[in-house]
Specification:
alpha/beta, 9 helices, 45% helix, five-stranded mixed beta sheet, single chain
Length: 242
């Protein structure tokens, strides 16, 4: 019921699950199987795609040519939005307020220092920089243009297919805290997922295997705008077949 909600009827997702997948076209983007994808993950995803084919899906190769620009575009748009949206959390009206304050400026500083973690502060700093005078056109505006190109890639692909599948991450799941001190490595791990965020399409990630260290490997399924029922059907059918 807010300004970001779409006024569309919500399907009965449970009832939709029982529809057969026979004839459903599943797209496989060649850009998702290039450099950086670990062999173990590739094999698990390829086996999952063959499983979908065995239960009646038609596998179609598609192209998302601007995928390589997804990470820089996403981390400019996302940090800029974080900088703007989190400005309201200053201790005045919303959420946390630091205690023992003696002035308005101290309340702002201490509330935001104590209330935000390292990653949130990092994103606010990057976003504020990208939106600052002299850098807006060079960074944020250009990222929004790339976002439009990524959206068009998906629109073209979905003219041929009903859903798109690919890896969730270039590697099996990494251990808790393993990359916490390397934010760049964490950001690069998002290469396959941020495209859906930029294009505004629904996606779901399901487990399709495990590594030699018994860490899960995920496959994601993308659908057209508001086609959540389709990706839930594909995910449900795969899990039943597996």
């Amino acid at each position: 019921m807010d300004s970001t909600s779409a006024e569309l009827p919500v399907p009965d997702y449970v009832a939709e699950l029982d529809k057969p997948l026979k004839g459903l076209k599943i797209g496989v983007a060649k850009e998702y199987f290039g450099e950086g994808l670990e062999q173990e993950t590739r094999k698990a995803i390829e086996a999952a795609i063959q499983k979908l084919a065995s239960i009646g899906c038609e596998i179609v190769e598609v192209s998302l040519p601007h995928t390589k620009y997804a990470i820089p575009a996403y981390y400019l748009v996302a940090t800029a939005e974080a900088s703007s949206n989190l400005a309201r959390f200053d201790g005045v009206r919303y959420a946390f307020r630091a205690s023992g304050i003696r002035s308005l400026s101290e309340m702002y500083r201490r509330t935001r220092d104590q209330g935000f973690g390292a990653e949130v502060k990092r994103r606010i700093m990057l976003g504020t920089y990208a939106l600052s005078a002299g850098y807006y056109d060079a960074y944020y505006l250009k990222a929004q243009r790339v976002r439009t190109l990524l959206t068009r890639d998906f629109e073209e692909a979905f003219k041929k297919v009903d859903a798109i599948v690919g890896p969730t991450c270039p590697t099996p799941a990494f251990k808790l805290g393993e990359k916490v001190d390397d934010p760049l490595a964490m950001y690069l791990a998002d290469i396959y997922t941020v495209t859906a965020n930029l294009a505004g399409i629904p996606g779901i990630s399901i487990p399709v295997g495990a590594s030699k260290e018994n860490l899960p490997i995920g496959m994601q399924i993308f659908g057209k705008h508001f086609a959540e029922s389709t990706i839930l059907r594909v995910a449900n059918a795969y899990e039943k077949a597996s």
